Known about the structure:
By secondary structure, this protein is an alpha/beta fold. The chain has a domain at 62-185 and 194-250: 3-Layer(aba) Sandwich (Rossmann fold), CATH 3.40.50. Helices cover 32% and strands 15% of the residues. The protein has nine helices and eight strands. The strands form three sheets. A four-stranded parallel sheet has the order 3-8-7-4, with helices on both faces. Strand 1 (6-7) and strand 2 form a beta hairpin. The longest helix has 18 residues, at 115-132.
Amino acid sequence: MPKNHRFSGKNTTFSKKIPLTTRIWASMRRLIPQICPLCQTPTSARAPLCAPCHASLPWMPPCCDCCGHWHCRGLCAQGLRVHRGLQPQWRSAAIFSYQPPLRNWVVGSKFEDSRVASWVLASLLGEYMAQHIPSEQVIVPIPTHFHRLSARGIDHVRWLCQHAAAGSGLAQRFAPDFLLRQRNTRAQVGLSMAERQRNVRGAFIAQPACRDQRIVLIDDVYTSGATSHAATIALLDAGAAQVQRLSLCRVLKHAAPLRSQGLIAHPMPTATPRL
């Protein structure tokens, strides 16, 4: 059991300190002029983007509450459970379609060590979490294996979740140690659906502390769903009450009526936003 968590009986209470760097940034952000990283115009104190650029982002269209597909009409496996009056074991949702500028920011944050792109993504994720994540749910990021962490130097998804939780007032519900990656898998890029499923099968192990907890499982990009599904199975097998799978971006294989098509091309942000 992680020593930075306290558990008392059936109801779990979390005690996790907010990182010093996050507290320093939260204190300094009121003193730093806020500039929209896309159009370079001044924005409000807490907004990572100006209102027009924020509205032009490729937001996901209305989707199935269970599987997260925009073309589903509640006929998925979990949706049929709801129709029968049963509680779905998991739900899936995404905030954005994996299009520019989100694609640029994810690549910049994950592979190019772009601090500015990371702060924009963390701010957008924190904004969503503050509005849609109940305070009784536990926030768990998809973990990175130790070997890949050594190569990159940072757990990208954990960093985003940690700062988004702090910015949305959910830092006490952030539990990154609930889920571990016990096997270093191949990169999923270029693999078929069947290969992706085999690649991540059994790659995750959940801690007993997640028993009876309602989990919000967060990843940066949802492509086929193989990774998040393998992590979901590990959490449910360990006794989690329910898993809400939340992705920052989702790859849409078929044309979807996006709420906003955004701009055709977005440059990488050049100004440091606030979280």
